[in-house]
Amino acid sequence: MKPILEVTDLTGGYLPNQPVIHHLDFSVKESEIVGLIGLNGAGKSTTIKHVLGLMEPMSGSSKIEGQTFRDEPEIYRSQFTYIPEVPILYEELTLWEHLELTAMAYGLEEQTFLTRVRPLLEEFRMDNKIKWFPSQFSKGMKQKVMILCALLVEPKLYIVDEPFVGLDPLGIQSFLEYMVKFKNSGAGVLMSTHILSTAERYCDRFLIMHEGRLVLSGTLDELRKRSELKDATLDEIYLYVARGKVT
Amino acid sequence: MIDVKKLWTKRRNAHLTQMLKYFSLMANSGLIVSLILLIVIGSIYYAKLLQALPNDFPAVFILTIIFSIWLTKSPIRTLLKEGDLVFLLPVESRMKQYFSMAISSSIAAGAFSTLFIFTLLWPIVQVFIHDGWKMYVIFSFFLIAAKIFNLFVSWEERRLPYKSHQMNYRIMRFIVNFVYAYLLFNEAYLFLIAIFAIMYVLKNFVFGFFKKQHGYQWEMLLAEEQALKIKGYRLVNYFTDVPALKQTVHRRPLLNRLAVFSFKKNNAFSALYMKTFIRSGDYLGLYVRLILLGFLFIYLIPPGWWQLAVVFLFFQMFSLQLFTLYTQYRWNVSFMIYPINDTVKAKAFENWLKGLLIIQGLVYGVFYWILTGDWIVAILMPVAALVYSLVRLPAMSKKHIPMTS
To answer: Which site among A191, B13, B73, B308 is 20 to 30 Å from B58 CA-CA?
Structure first.
């Protein structure tokens, strides 16, 4: 399968000469969900910020469809949508206006927007809340707004940061079903999460980060082989890695 | 264990220092001078107004209304914080000390402000009811006593778990206060004593019961505290920027109809800016205030070409304030990663500001034209807005809007 996102030898951080992530190499291909896993502070969010083009790499690169953010900022960013860990909304816009703004910003046709938006709202049971403001939403509903905005665009690549916290079980299920649906029609997903049982069931490959480095990657079988843990669950492999047993 | 007494003292001191800081900022800003000017002019007109009032002016009735509303409104600053809902709940049984200190300081503030309001209205009392310093003391005493009663009783009222029940008791207090104030301004002291008896019964038996039946309504107390805090900040905000002030959002459906944009990528930001401007509490208010203040200046300053300089000044004031709207989006990750060039974002912002400035110029122009009949300067006002936005705005946006690409 063709890679959508290619991260090569990526090193970066917040202070010069003090990189937080070191020499990362990974890719997300068409029709696959890749789980990004690591302890708090392992460097997942920093990695994601580099992929989003919000941070500049010290060395190495992050390419989407062969182009870096520097090369073609607009084209780079129109290839993906992002669901942040903490939902951030515009206090002054209603749910409907959030969706509309997103559609406009990503250059969707009005007709496309209208045909996509209704089923999404119904699926996430938000169709009766389109005139609500963020201050009226619970944490889970805010998360749903972010998810709706990201799914609406139907990009090639989804970058998802811990989507399950605060979401109700039905919401989680709907979200996963959409992810699988888009995956089957060729999209790639990079998903950071701590909910390993879900990751194990839905991700095709895993990237396990520890202290800013990619220590293990591959399918579950490959992880088992490399960590020499036979029949281990993702949980067990992860704990093994997190305790610093793999270097 | 937490010493709740110390906690209160610490919070009160922090609150006072903060207020003092804001007060000095207010005193330093130029607006305080205009406020003093306004007070001086106001008091002259006040004296004139008093003379012009007819003899059958219903002073008693009006004073009664004012004070029954004032007495019924009994805000209590508890200085609670959001975290208290977690950290102070375990010591709820000992919070009595904390809250009684809070009530005491609210009583002090309430007594003082009651005296202040009464002093403001004293000239009316002098003319229509009764003159003499003894009367001033007696009226003040009774009003402050009633204020203290209301504060105590309303504290117990705050234990009721439903807003609607609280409202019922508040209406009851309003009626008592109304009768009280009416009797007071009619100088019917004998009846006042009867009302005192009723108030005693209310305090000890009706409101006193709530204490036994209900605990504290933490969330409501916190909501009240936050509302009061924001009220205070809003006042300060007229003079200086208050970062802690959370914007309140209003739906404003009628104005929002103006924010109609065709469904195009390039319009995304214009729609966003426009809606933020219309809906968020302060930007629209600022716009209107500055326009009105501009009217005042245009009115006060003799007509002529120099009026254009005045108008320029107001364009500058408005656009400087409005650039803070952009910083509101600074931490919004969606806003940062939209696949739209930063220059387009900034350009949309400039264009939108340009529109507002031209409207401002037009409004000034019309006002000036009505005032003086001088249509040349009047027409030049919106032209000045256009020139201003073409010359100044790009430089300002370069300074205020960060570019990443």
So the answer is: B73
